[in-house]
Specification:
The protein has one helix and nine strands, in the order H-E-E-E-E-E-E-E-E-E. It is of the alpha+beta class.
């Protein structure tokens, strides 16, 4: 019986560790030698997460589709180039060099909306 409990404890600890790794992957991380930063937006459960993100000018935003359905990242005002349809695990990135507010949506599922605030 103690072997079963140890196995369950190990499985639980492994699950917690994997969740922590996934959560840390969603945070901003330094990415280039010129000081620019990369920020990630997950596409999952038919939503952009986070829905609103504030970044410094010069930052790169990377969207990753974690849904089983295709999605797009479509600029609502031609503020940046829009993506093609992204399948599961596909990525799309855009560099935001000018301060302002950039709204976007999924052209396949227009209820999915997001905002990038560049300072």
């Amino acid at each position: 019986m103690s072997t079963v409990i140890k196995a369950l404890a190990f499985a639980f600890a492994l699950t917690v560790l994997l969740c922590a790794v996934e959560a840390s992957a969603m945070t901003a991380k330094a990415s280039s030698s010129n000081g620019a930063r990369t920020y990630q937006v997950a596409i999952r459960n038919f939503a952009f997460e986070p829905g609103t993100i504030t970044v410094p000018a010069g930052a790169t935003v990377v969207w990753v589709n974690q849904d089983e359905e295709p999605h797009t990242v479509t600029s609502a005002g031609s503020g940046f180039a829009s993506s093609k349809a992204l399948d599961t695990d596909d990525r799309y990135e855009a560099i935001f060099s000018r301060p302002g507010t950039y709204t976007y949506y999924c052209s396949i599922h227009p209820h999915m909306v997001g905002t990038i605030i560049v300072q």
